[in-house]
Amino acid sequence: MFIVEETIAGTETGTETARIPTQRGESLMDAAVRYTEERHWDVFPGTWLEAVDGVPRCSCGEPACPLPGAHAAREDWATQATGSATAARRLWSAQPTASVLLPTGRTFDALDVPETSGFLALARMERMGLTLGPVTCTPDGRMRFFVLPGAAAKIPELVRKLGWPLASLGLVVLGEGAYVAAPPTRYGSRGAVQWACRPTPANRWLPDAEELISPLAYACGRDNRR
Q1: What is the torsional sign of CA 89, 94, 97, 98?
Q2: Where are the beta strands (DSSP E) in the chain?
């Protein structure tokens, strides 16, 4: 059974610092360390939110940043990514409010689809009895299904065999050279990344993209016809 956690609304009143949504529950550092220890995922710190004239802005300095506080802060982010819990503690000690980002193409790839398609696919997968890996929901309306690395090379041909034009599905494969934001990272005041399917011991072994592509392609194709 999949779940979606309640989105924590940003604070709208008070001092300038209060206007930046308060991190609640698990800290970003604790989450980053847990991902390295429990899942052996590489992590790296991204941008964070700063108060500018009482408004939360991305630390990158771009007023119209599309992913405020939730993208890579450095061009060489791939060299900063680490699977060491000790290194993760050191990185987030330097900037405790930095977003938690996970590079794809290493221990997992991610199949990125529109949220409406993703929930339709989740329901279909549940009926089919498929074993899922972790799945995230992002505040900008996307869902990311974690699968074994190598999906980027397989998906175009798999989708073609199913009779769908990949470009029309709104499905993106995030592999080597890309990354995803992990809970509890926030996208500005829009909310936090959440787990639709949490990482658990039961889904430690990730599915192959081939196992999920049929219900995902069907859901994306159906959703796009509406």
Answers
A1: negative
A2: 44-45, 49-52, 55-58, 100-103, 109-114, 135-137, 142-147, 172-174, 179-181, 194-197
Rounded to the nearest integer, the mean pLDDT of the chain is 88
* CA 129, 106, 27, 65 torsion-angle sign: negative
For strand 135-137 and strand 142-147, is the pairing parallel, antiparallel, or unpaired? Answer: antiparallel
Q: Which two tokens stand for residue 38?
A: 């429990």
Q: What global pTM score does this model have?
A: 0.88
Q: Is the dihedral of CA 67, 226, 214, 169 positive or negative?
A: negative
CA atoms within 13 A on the CB side of 94: 9
**pLDDT at residue 77 above 70?**
yes
Give the up-direction half-sphere exposure of residue 119: CA atoms within 13 A in the CB hemisphere: 9
Length of the chain: 226
Contacts of residue 202, Cβ cutoff 8 Å, sequence gap at least 6: 131
Confidence of residue 56 (pLDDT cuts 50, 70, 90): confident
Of the pLDDT bands very low, low, confident and very high (cuts 50, 70, 90), residue 53 is confident
Element (H, E) at 34: helix 28-34
Q: Within 10 Å of residue 166's Cβ, how many Cβ atoms?
A: 18
